[in-house]
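Can't paste images in this forum, so I'm doing it all in text. The chain is below; anyone willing to post the predicted structure tokens underneath?
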Amino acid sequence: MGYILTKEDIIRISPSSFRVDKYIKELEELNLLPITYDSPKLLILARMAGALMTDGNLYDCRKNNFRETSFTLGQKSDVDEVVKDIKLLGFKKFRFGKKISKCNIQGRRFTMNCYWIKVTSTSFWLLFRGLGVPAGNKTKQGYNIPECILNSSKRVKKEFLAGFLGGDGPKVTIKMEKRPKREDFNSLNINDIEFRKIKEKESDGLDFAKQIGKLLEEFGIKINKIFSVKDKIPKQDGTFSSIIHIRISSSVESAYNYINIGYSYCNQKREAVINVKKFLEIILDKRIKWVNLHKIAKEKFYKGETIKNISNDLGIDYGAVFGWLRYNKRPTIQKHYLKFDKWVKEENKNGCSNIN
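Text version of the structure:
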């Protein structure tokens, strides 16, 4: 049983002005100190840590001796989700509300609606600071994924990533691409994961992105590229930030594994990928069946059966079997005519898909 967070850690990160004994007692009474790798609340802590490293913030005003932990969310249902986890951790000092803000980006005006939650408990702040969540403006500093996440089980890592993707993770979409004189095809798209750093912290941002990429790869998600570009929009002081990009493969397997991580505290993203996930499951099932047929075809061929007989027995096009057995072509997926837009219409009409 390894220790993740102890009272000695809380003492170490606390300024001398803190009534540290009071906060340690509060955390001990909530069974949040010490924290070990088998602590029952570790999954919640990992999920919240991921969210705080994107659209959350640990605010620390030393001048006024004031600390606050905040979450920025898109919908009221997301607020309910965070509030539930705060209560499960045992905290009661929080407030939430709705914020309407107007912004101007390259001459285009937008009205943005969002919700916020603010936890005013210092012990709550110390808890996440002790776990390795950065305090203050994340754009202006370097930091890593908390060691306790990197050293934990895959279940804990998944919860951390779900919290992170709920904030900075893109949705997976499928749109129909048109081609001249040919049928439309399903185009799978995933935007890059993006976050900003000041120019001086660009290298730190790239290191953090590599950590996120490595963690995603543990779940079968292929990372194509990690890079940075200069932001086109200047900050208020006239300087430009660096935008860090994590580019995810749009292959069917990788995209499906990415969706399976989930989006904690972001119901909008979860709902947006429901049909995409179902559709990808159908395609993956077809791919598995096609690979199995390839295996059977090779076994029959090694036993002396002719390509023609194998083609007839399995009900597969002769050219496909010939390519497998004579040219060692890889099985990808059998020709199918499923189109995402039409499939969604059927899905919505029937309530469930019966298309094979």
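The chain has a mean pLDDT of 91. The longest helix spans residues 274-302.
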